[in-house]
TrEMBL record:
This protein's name: Cyclohex-1-ene-1-carbonyl-CoA dehydrogenase
Occurrences of domain Acyl-CoA dehydrogenase/oxidase N-terminal (ranges): 5-117
PROSITE patterns (UniProt xref): ACYL_COA_DH_2
The protein's required cofactors: FAD
Protein source organism: Caldithrix abyssi DSM 13497
Amino acid sequence: MIQFSEEHQMVRKMIQDFARKEVAPKAIEIDENETFPHETFKKMAELNLMGLIFEEKYGGAGMDYISYIIILEELARVCASTALSYSAHVSLAANPIATYGTEAQKEKYLKPLAAGEKIGSFCLSEPNAGSDAAHIQTTAAKDGDYFILNGSKAWITNAEVADIFIVAAVTDKEKGAHGISNFIVERGTPGFEIGKKEKKCGMRGSPTSVLHFNECKIPAENLLGKLNKGYPQFLETLDGGRVGIAAQSLGIAKEAFKRSMIYAQERKAFGRAIGDFQAIQFKLADMATKIYAAENMIYHAAWLKQNGKPYKKEAGMAKLFASEAATEIANQAIQIHGGYGYIREFEVERFWRDAKLLEIGEGTSEIQRLVIYRQWKDDISKI
């Protein structure tokens, strides 16, 4: 059973208050209008949430990873779009710079990201390389003191609003996955274009766009980490991101469950509350059980990461289970609400639309199953 410290409980209370007052009132609007919540992110920056897990010397709050997971969970309960863009900024864009960046890169890029002065984005997927990330086609060719980027990226979270992009590109075609490097690219760099914004089923307040690089000239000093070591870098980045996706799934699942419990006591049918019927009780019991299991898996994986222990398979299992559970729970929430569940005013339909992406992003459920199998195959002694 998870044991949260007093500090973690305070973090949860703080973010719950913030989420209900500042985030929840905008959730329906940003979904309907497909708009990024700029004002919310400014207020999050004032609370030092944008640099939550980074060292204070870089403008961060110096808090632990479990606190970050708590914040993602609570944000997702009220607005999954906000949680998704926040996680892409912290975990996928700023964290690689904090982990692999030079001191100069941290001063130039991590500080404004941690302060919330700039928004970050992570650029890996391509039109022909989603799950098969080892076969990306964007290239970066060395040219004196520069690298020249050419190619396209797809399904990039925050692209429309981001200032700093972490971009994966092939630097040695002969080496396959061992010939990929990561770069820091600034918005406005000549040859770098933000393409069309995608029209999505869910997570509509978190913008997703296509990117194009055409002879885009990047200073060699913007190479992130070592040359040709980008593949293991972004695999490690995605492991942490998967725990974050799981936390967002948990937030959606909890809110869908809570609303279903309340509705089941209020809604009358055949002269009784629908919660008095065994068919509804069984649905709610299954929801509660999946939430309990997901919560323990997620925070165990977070604890492992926080304490420097291997957590790849735990991250994969938490992401797989929690994301699929969230979609199922949101689906059952719609069913319990009946016709009202299909109406946007009651929001549970939005929970389903948002949850579905979490089975796809940062490694599909199918990829997670491969990761989990391979991890256990290599460690049969622990079975």
